[in-house]
Specification:
alpha+beta, Glucose Permease (Domain IIA), 2 domains, 3 helices, 19% helix
Length: 210
Amino acid sequence: MRSPIHREGFFMAGSLFVIGLLFSTVSKWLGRLFYLVSAFTLYFFRDPERNIPQGESLIVSPADGKVVGIDSVEHVPFIDGPAKRVSIFLSIFDVHINRAPIRGKIAYRHYTPGEFLPAFEPKASVKNEQNAIGIEDADGYRVLVKQIAGLIARRILCWKNPGDRVERGDRFGLIRFGSRTDIFLPLDARIEVKLGQRVQGGSTVIARRA
């Protein structure tokens, strides 16, 4: 059975708990502060199971959070042309596990170092540190997902590499603390979410392919 907490959380929470034990010998309040931060760290790294909707035309959200942008971009690598973009802001209270929006093969991966602007700012999609993966299905349909660091986020993890296969809703990565995830879709995709809507990775239908 899969743990409801990602393994990264156990290491960080355990370290904070030990620090709390040490500080509690000097100040019980300082010790309690570290205990609280340790507990929140476990909460942050939660990794719940999700009900993945079925249907070949469905494209699910790659992340939990709030839809903060829906627009078009003139040229997107991997898609090799213009694309629709849906931007999702993840606060420190959202699940930070990223999930594959479609079934297919990882056909592209590119890491870009950068800044750590607040993730909700539009220019964060271009200027911030980020990791992009492209997924191509058996019909050649392509989707690109960007994991984007934020003001607090300082580590982007991606467990998939070119050649790996994923099912819709499979976990492929994690971003520590507040961050953003952008998904880029072909122009004929029908967007199913609205600005301000809250979405869940792997279970919210974010678009349908034509």
